[in-house]
Design brief:
Length: 208
């Protein structure tokens, strides 16, 4: 994943790192700080779907656009492409003035996205599923905005979700951020008999 995003324009000073524990300080110490984003991959369970629809039902559709947005959110319309990729600078510039539906169309029709996704899929050790395959795994990102809010970014929701305020010196792997984000997510699965299989990677300073 790091090689892919570097090829697409992400600064070489940043990289993705595996997060092996949410509670063991010795394992958390392997992750460089600050952590700018967490990517959680998990099975789409009945528990997740029920919680998603219950929380989303009273919410309006998110239609914001432009430089006044606190975060840049994309609606997911491409199957098995939870982490769409293109040249990052061009993507942000092109998507910023668009509403979420138009952003989704931008991703769907971009040849560079299709090429980057195919290249990343073919570079791994596991055979990638087709776009039409019924895959039960999904990605959610947690990021901290310049206003110190923790945002949950899930392309299957009605929009980005503000999970709470963080301190100036708290990154997304801080205890408070984990309680508001990833731990809250997993606690719900545990309490309601869901599936606790998950993996987590962090976007943080490169160790190279």
């Amino acid at each position: 994943m790091t090689k892919l995003v570097h090829n697409l324009g992400l600064s070489p000073t940043l990289a993705f790192h595996d997060v092996y524990s949410l509670d063991d300080p010795s394992l958390l110490a392997f992750v460089p700080r600050p952590v700018y984003a967490l990517l959680l991959v998990f099975p789409v369970t009945e528990t997740y779907e029920k919680a998603r629809t219950t929380e989303d039902d009273p919410l309006p559709e998110y239609n914001a656009s432009g430089s006044g947005e606190e975060v840049l959110w994309f609606r997911q319309t491409i199957r098995n492409a939870c982490a769409p990729s293109t040249d990052l600078a061009n993507l942000i510039t092109s998507a910023l003035p668009l509403d979420p539906s138009s952003r989704a169309q931008l991703l769907e029709t971009s040849p560079s996205i299709a090429q980057a996704h195919a290249s990343a899929a073919s570079g791994g050790d596991t055979v990638a599923p087709s776009a039409e395959a019924n895959v039960d795994l999904h990605f959610v990102a947690f990021v901290k905005s310049p206003e110190n809010n923790l945002w949950e970014l899930d392309g299957r929701r009605k929009g980005p979700l503000n999970r709470g305020k963080l301190g100036d010196n708290e990154d997304v792997l801080a205890e408070k951020a984990l309680d508001l984000g990833v731990r809250r997510f997993l606690k719900r699965e545990e309490e309601l008999g869901g599936d606790l299989r998950f993996s987590l990677v962090a976007l943080a300073p490169s160790m190279d």
